Recover the amino acids of this structure.
């Protein structure tokens, strides 16, 4: 049975099997170390019984007042360990900490609009599209649906503090903002 444990700095030297996926954003070592220093309780890795990393999640707490929330910066599972609910379990752990420790109103994440599998997975976990962010990942030009292939959906899930569910909306796919309008 695998174990969900805190992400450690040494994991940066053994997680290449996870980051080889085309959908996974990779960052420089200082980026990861900043997360581990500032939000260590929102960064986890899933490890197999033999010590092989299966996946990881990086998160942070940010915002102010009713926009105070947990944010999933990265969640990725190595291809050979997918469809085992590892991403779901890591997200639930981050949601639990965002709700109980940080007292956030919601958890959000950004996902490429053309990553249909990830969008379906997040929707199955209770996330919904809050807005579409134009050219969030850069600009590769117009795709097959007439929209930029590097747009992102800002997906959100309410936490217990957002009783009125003000942090979500039903028409999020129709709300389009510029990447410059989001922090």
């Amino acid at each position: 049975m695998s174990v969900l444990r805190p992400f450690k700095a040494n994991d940066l030297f053994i997680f290449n099997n996870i980051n080889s996926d085309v959908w996974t954003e990779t960052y420089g070592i200082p980026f990861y170390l900043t997360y581990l220093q500032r939000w260590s309780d929102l960064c986890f890795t899933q490890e197999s019984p033999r010590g092989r990393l299966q996946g990881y999640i990086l998160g942070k707490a940010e915002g102010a007042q009713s926009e105070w929330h947990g944010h999933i910066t990265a969640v990725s599972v190595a291809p050979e360990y997918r469809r085992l609910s590892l991403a779901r379990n890591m997200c639930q752990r981050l949601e639990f900490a965002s709700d109980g420790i940080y007292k956030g109103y919601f958890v959000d994440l950004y996902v490429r609009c053309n990553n249909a599998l990830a969008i379906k997975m997040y929707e199955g976990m209770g996330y919904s599209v809050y807005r579409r962010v134009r050219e969030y990942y850069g600009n590769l030009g117009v795709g097959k649906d007439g929209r930029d292939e590097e747009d992102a959906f800002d997906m959100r899930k309410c936490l217990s503090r957002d009783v009125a569910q003000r942090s979500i909306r039903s028409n999020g796919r129709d709300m389009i903002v510029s990447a410059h309008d989001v922090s």
Notes: The beta strands are 3-6, 43-47, 53-62, 69-77, 106-112, 128-134, 152-158, 176-178.
